Amino acid sequence: MSDPALEAKLEVKQASKEVKESENVAEKYSAMTVSKNSEMNMGDLSPAFTAVPTHKPVKKQIQFVVDNQEFSRFPTKAGRRSLSRSISQSSTDSYSSAASYTDSSDDETSPRDKTQVNSKGSSDFCVKNIKQAEFGRREIEIAEQDMCALISLRKRAQSDKPLAGAKIVGCTHITAQTAVLIETLVALGAQCRWTACNIYSTQNEVAAALSENGVAVFAWKGESEDDFWWCIDRCVNTEGWQPNMILDDGGDLTHWMYKKYPNVFKKISGIVEESVTGVHRLYQLSKAGKLCVPAMNVNDSVTKQKFDNLYCCRESILDGLKRTTDVMFGGKQVVVCGYGEVGKGCCAALKALGAIVYVTEIDPICALQACMDGFRVVKLNEVIRQVDVIITCTGNKNVVTRDQLDRMKNGSIVCNMGHSNTEIDVASLRTPELTWERVRSQVDHVIWPDGKRVILLAEGRLLNLSCSTVPTFVLSITATTQALALIELYNAPEGRYKQDVYLLPKKMDEYVASLHLATFDAHLTELSEEQAKYLGLNKNGPFKPNYYRYGSTL
What are the S-adenosyl-L-homocysteine hydrolase NAD binding domain coordinates in residue numbering (predicted)? Predict the structure, then answer.
């Protein structure tokens, strides 16, 4: 029978022997290393090698930190502030490009209450912080690398200055990509004043960079509703500056000028509108006989609808949802309201990740397309209790109502991919019985009395530009289309465009597409004279009639 005490004593003795042996090996290795190094020229060794301390100095160094009580175990409040400032400054120095995305400034003062001046002495702007201009310039330079077609257009037309004399007032998302467009318009001779079409989509550093470069920008991320309209008014109502062109995204700028400054609106040479919502407003004005200027519908141009609406949303829907919620889509039940180009892009992306996707539609043609693409078309009320995510992209209002939100299950996500914030009835959620809890930027828990939580993203506003970014290349296609539409309207002879809404000429759509083919090293086949005659076409285009509908590729 074994003696436990004796066995324990033997184990301790064996462990002691192993420790002693390992120390002998370490000393022997150290001696060998020193001996070998002594035969070498120490100048041949890198500082990393020569600075390696022996075992004992390491022990002494550790003791040094303990002896010098430079940092107490529990720092004082002042000490914590000092350390925090030190870390913050270090992070800004080391990761400046990342710091530009996170405005770490503790200054919560509204930009409207600040007096800021750029390096040229101008104060005709209102942005979050003009000192972020350097960060914004880097963002713009990155965007330029993937917007080669727009840069190519800038270089080709810069000497002709086709927009000389144009005074363009713009209301779009202010991102690095739109900054490339704005600076292209300036290079082509235009004067620009700009504001944001969405209170959450502005990149503050980009707005600062544009302001530093002489563009009058009035926008910052997180504006209030009052700030939003104030910024639009500052762009339009300024002494000694009369706009003659409008570039709008959503129709808010056009609506503001039409209602508040009718005399200024009548002197506009043309409007370029890029969103479903804005185009709908223009057609309403035209139908009522109240549209007194020509307008270009860019949203329904092939290069906008079939590329920006489809491919951009196919990628950015996932980006926005992942950044805000970290949700895994495999097996999740998702309903996409609307199967237009935006809806098609969203459905394709979600299906590829293994989500179970339902579609709601009012249009039988779009509904049939959804069915043929493998999606089940339902009414929202049929699946409202079981779905995990609702995505709206219709351009309509009250697509998701309070009654439906009440019936959603705990933990559901609700978001919008349409331009306007009217699709989800967010106003009905601001009632005393519901609690709003901010989780992170643009992410809110709406909590019901029974404890149920629904995750609302960007307060029902456009998800991708509010909560993430969008692919630069596809925005180059839209931006080039917008620039050409402005050039066309501004330079068109009198009488070509009447007081109505027009589509971009097919030839211009094809030109925009051709500018982007070089990126893919794509080579177009050319028609022979005989082939062109057989088809009844000009061998240089346009290659399709205006009624041709380009199919969606999913």
Answer: 309-470
